[in-house]
Structures are given as structure tokens and as C-alpha cells.
Amino acid sequence: MIEIVIFINLVSLCNFLQIITICSAKATPKRKEGIKTKDQLSTTFSTDSNAEPTRKPVLTISKTRASSKENVEKKPENLPEIQKKSQKFKKKKSNDKEKEKSTSLETITKDIQKSKRFAEQSRNTDKIDQRKTWAAEISKKKCAQLAKLHKERVKGFVAPRTSYKAFESNQSLNRFSDVFCIDSTRVILKKQQNDYIHASWIHIPDSQTSYILTQGPLTDTISDFWTMCLQEKIKYIVMLCPLMEDEEQCAQYFPDEIGQKEKYGNFEVTFQKRCEEPVENVGHSILSVADGEKPAVEINHIWVTWWIDHLAPNNPKDIIKLINWVKSHNPPKTPILVHCNSGAGRAATFAAIDYASIRLKQESDIDMVIIIRELRNMRYQAVQSHLQFLFIHVCLLELFIQKGIIERDSAVELFMEEYRKHADNKLAKRKAGDMGSKNEKQLLHH
């Protein structure tokens, strides 16, 4: 727009100069002399002072203006071409700048990408899967070292600043007088006059899974047990004890045979069907539980009868398989109910394997002692014996092998073999002790 205005002004000026030149030409006769110089003009004026001043300077000016006019008249003709050239130059310059800018941006982008790749490679190099590091450290240890660790730092640990008021107020509803139930984590029965049951919440850090650890029901607490199952929408019950060992481990809270029905307070429990074993020698049945006139609810009952109190299996594979199977079948964010006789030994060990696998993934240098203490903040006396403590380590190694995190190398095999021998030895002693106690009882009887 500015260039158009300048062009119009130049044309107007040229027209004006042309008019002046024409007028000057008409007023003055044509001369053949050329344009005089400055010196010639001054000589002319000085030699004839009386004479009338000539109009040579005017002619000179007119001719100068005329030549200027000719130059100006040529300008409009050349201007579009000049403008085109100017625009081309500006465009080229702009394109060059854009190219430079684009090139510099590409270079910066490439540099950033290289930096990111380098940083990522550095992180990957520095940040090895912490479970792998933990496994390497554990496989170097001896079972005796870990057993001592449990004895010195776990066995006597009691969660600080905890209360057990509900437990103390309901002594008749507790299977053991020395296995307390923590107030802050206990399961509260709703819509009941007495809201107490000896059961605790265990929340797994990934927030997708939670457990309820409870004692084996007493005859007087079976109704409360089924109340809790329906209230918390339980779909899987994992029972980790037989009904009897040396003494009662758990009151029978379900019928024995397919189609059989049993009444427990307001609840009617029906043995619907027996399913395929999820793991060898692990029972799986479906129970139908009805609360009065309400629609019946199906609950899966998983029963492990071969895990002996205070001990642990000599092979981790079956328990790992069972944990994975239950977790894969249980609906998301639905608690898994696990019990043994106390809900603190075998049941807590079962939950601890899952809990520890998540914690070790979160923190590289976390100690297993800290993990079990965290569990004991939720369930009193969780993981009661040193053998159960060792079993958690062996299960985690097996789990990490199955997940491809570690290899089954010689160090891991040696540790597992040492554990197997230790577990077999403990089991043999228990059986020998049981036989001895039975013989003693028979002698006393006779």
C-alpha cells in the first residue's frame, strides 16, 4: 500500500515538472549553445554589468530540470521491475532465513532426542530391576542367617501405638487368647449389634488386591463368618488348614457332600459342586450361601489340607501356582479371604508372598524384615515361624524365575536345596514328635 502511494506521488511530481519545463521553453528562444558551466555563468555576469541579466541560468536550470524530468519519467517504467526484483530478493532472503530456522530447529530436535536416548540408556543401565538385585543378594545367604534374622528382628516385633479393645471385649469369640486383633485394621460387621469378628484387612500396595486374614471360625462364630463373606462380597475363600491336627484347627462351616445343605444361624449353605483342582491336592468346590429370604450367592472354596501349622511346604511351586490362580480368577478390587487356625501363620505367609513381591518391585533396598513388620502393623503376629519367613524368600525366588526376572542359576538352586532340606528336617521332627506324643498319650491312657 505504501509503495502505491509513493508511486502516485512520483507521477504527480513528474507531471508538475513537465508543465514548468514546457512553460519555460515557450518563453525563451532556443539556443544552440550547450549548457554553461558555473564559471562561464559568473564570467558572463561580470563582463557586462550594465547589460540586462541573461536567462542563461534559467535555461541551464530548465535543461537540468528537463534532464531530471526525463530521468523521473523513466522511473515509473522501471519501478515494477525494481519492485519485482526487490520482492524476489526479500522472498529469497525470507526463504533462506526459514531454511536456516528449520535447519536449526531440526538440529535442536535431533540433539534433544539424542539427549533423551542417552538419558534413557543411562537410566536403564543404572536402574536394573530391583527384584533381580534382591534375588542375587538373598541367594548368597544361608538359611541359618535368615532364620536368625527372623528370631532377632521379627518374632518379638509388635506394632507400636496399637490397641486391641474389641478383641479384649470379646474373649469368647477369639480362638487364641494371645493372638490379638488390631482395632485399626479389623473388619467391622455392619448392621449387627456386635460388630466384632477376629479378622483383619491386608491392603496390597498395588491397590488392585486386598486380603482379609481371619481365624478359623469357632462353632459360635460361623454365622459371623458368613455375615462377613456376604458383606464384603467375597468370591474366594482360601482355607490353609485341615479341620483337625493335634487339636481343632477350624470348625466345619460348610457341608461335606454335593447337594448337602447346612444351616448356620440365618444362613443356609449348600455344597453345589466339586470343581477341577487348581493345583494338585488342592480342593475346589462351589458353595451357595443364602441369608434368609435373600438370593443365594456363589462362593468358591479352596482347601489346602497339607500345610502343617507353624511349618511350610518344602517346594514353593504349588503355593505360587495357587496364588496366581486365585488372583487371576478373583474379580478386581474384591478381597480374597484367607484363613488357617489363627489367621496369622499360614494365612499371613500366603498374603505376604504377594505383598512382598509388590514391595520389592517398588523399593530396591527394602529389607524383608521391614516388609513383615508392615504386615504386622495390619495383622498381629503375621508370619509366626522362621520356616514361614524362609518360605517367603524361596517363593519369591521361584516367582521371579517364572516371570523371567531372574534365572535358575547355581546360587539360587543351592539356596532352594538348602531350604528343602531344612523344611524336610523340620517336618520329620514334627512327625516324630507327634508319634511320640501319641504314644505317650496311649501309655498314660493304659
Task: Please tell me about this protein's structure.
By secondary structure, this protein is α/β, with parallel strands linked by helices. The chain has a single domain (130-445), classed as Protein-Tyrosine Phosphatase, Chain A (Alpha-Beta Complex), CATH 3.90.190. Helices cover 52% and strands 11% of the residues. The chain is built from 12 helices and 8 strands. The chain has helices at 2-27, 38-47, 56-126, 130-138, 143-153, 165-169, 222-231, 317-329, 346-362, 368-376, 386-402, 410-445, and strands spanning 199-203, 210-214, 236-239, 261-264, 267-274, 282-291, 297-304, 336-339. Strands 1-2-8-3-7-6-5-4 form an 8-stranded mixed sheet, with helices on both faces. Helix 1 (2-27) runs antiparallel to helix 3 (56-126), helix 5 (143-153) crosses helix 11 and helix 9 (346-362) crosses helix 10 (368-376). The longest helix has 71 residues, at 56-126. It starts with a helix and ends with a helix. Residues 26-75 and 440-446 have low confidence and may be disordered. This is Protein-tyrosine-phosphatase. Residues 67-84, 95-106 have a biased composition (Basic and acidic residues). It holds the Pfam family Y_phosphatase. GO terms for molecular function: protein tyrosine phosphatase activity.
